[in-house]
Amino acid sequence: MTRVLLAFVACLVPVVSGCAGPQGFVYTHTTQPLTTDFHQTPVVGDEAAGDVKEIQYYVRVLWSTNGIGAIAKANGFDKVHYADLETLSVLGIWTQQWVHVYGTR
Question: Do residues 76 and 69 lie in contact, with contact meaning Cβ atoms separated by under 8 Å?
């Protein structure tokens, strides 16, 4: 019975992983690029961030904004070169996402 269960789990793991990023049950903190085409993209030092907070327990509540254009405009960027998405999740109840925008002013 144990071998059958192990074989079942081994076959199930590739199916359920899919395209989703890493997700922990208790705590998750990841940073992922929002763009992957870095051909001729300059490395810049100017950075700005915006975040969205979410709490979900029976009802889902979101507030703030993390739109790339809104962040760039609020921080005076003339051109946006790339952006990253940083996600923090605790127990799946509290989630906060930051968009880090890199560009020139």
Answer: no
Is residue 16 in a domain? Answer: no
Pick the closest to residue 80 from 55, 47, 51, 54 (CA basis): 47
pLDDT of residue 95: 86
Q: Which residues of the chain have pLDDT under 70?
A: 11-24
- Provide the domain limits for residue 91: 21-104
Q: How many domains does the chain have?
A: 1
User: DSSP readout, the chain?
Assistant: -HHHHHHHHHHHHHHHHTT-----SSEEEEEEES----TTPPP---EEEEEEEEEEESEEEEEE---HHHHHHHTT-SEEEEEEEEEEEETTTEEEEEEEEEEE-
Structural domain contains residue 48? yes
Residue 11 is assigned to a structural domain of this protein: no
How high is the pLDDT of residue 12?
63
